[in-house]
Amino acid sequence: MLERVPRRWKWFAAFSLITLVLDQLTKLWARHGLPVDSRGIGKSVAVIENFFDWRLSYNTGSAFGLFSSVTGARIFLTIVGVVALGAIAWMVHKGKNDQRRLMVGLGLVGGGAIGNVIDRVAFGKVTDFVVWKWYSHEWPTFNVADAALCVGVGLLFLDLGKQAKEEKARQDAEKATEKAKPSEKKKKK
């Protein structure tokens, strides 16, 4: 039965599933394994001093804390996540089996979106725990789903660039063929 599933769906499903499982397992670990103070606020655990910490936090917004103070963000972002998954499934359906980078990117985006939608529906907020920093400057706390979304979108842009180059090369080849045709006619006369 798996032989009949198009290769693009296999790539997409594999990366979505890997992303989703890693995301949910690491969030479970963060919720139960990272230290919090008496008020429930996460305490930093240095992984690489001044560069990388673990610290439990919860985000009612989207990736990197965007929309966290917006009323109705949970419902809005859940709907956006579900609509995005529909769009992703359509893109996989329309894609080609040789577009591996596109399918991996869509899988990462899909798995990340599902992971954060699960958190929003189950807990009303997304579990974040990765802190990147440069000494006292900290970037917004994030999770595996957020990282997968960013990498996946990057792969989508790379694939778009590759497709644009291939299309330009095809058009240039067609133009060269068209230019060669009239000179062939002259030779035949």
Describe what you observe in this structure:
The protein is of the alpha+beta class and 189 residues long. It has one domain. The protein has 4 helices and 4 strands. It has helices spanning 7-33, 73-94, 100-123, 144-188, and strands at 45-48, 52-59, 126-134, 137-138.
Outline:
The protein is α+β, with helices and mostly antiparallel strands and 189 residues long. It is 62% helix and 12% strand. It has one domain (2-172).
Please supply descriptive tags for the structure shown above.
189 residues, alpha+beta, four-stranded antiparallel sheet, 12% strand, elongated
Structural class: alpha+beta
Extended strand count: 4
Alpha-carbon distance between the termini?
59 Å
Question: Considering DSSP H and I runs of 4 or more, what fraction of the residues is helical?
Answer: 55-70%
- Percentage of residues in strands: 5-15%
Counting H and I runs of at least 4 residues, what is the number of helices? Answer: 4
Q: Outline, from the CA principal axes?
A: elongated
Name the strands of the widest sheet in spatial order.
Answer: 1-2-3-4
Radius of gyration, in angstroms, nearest whole number: 23 Å
Biggest β-sheet description: 4 strands, antiparallel
**What is the number of domains?**
1
Identify low-pLDDT runs: none
Overall pLDDT: 90
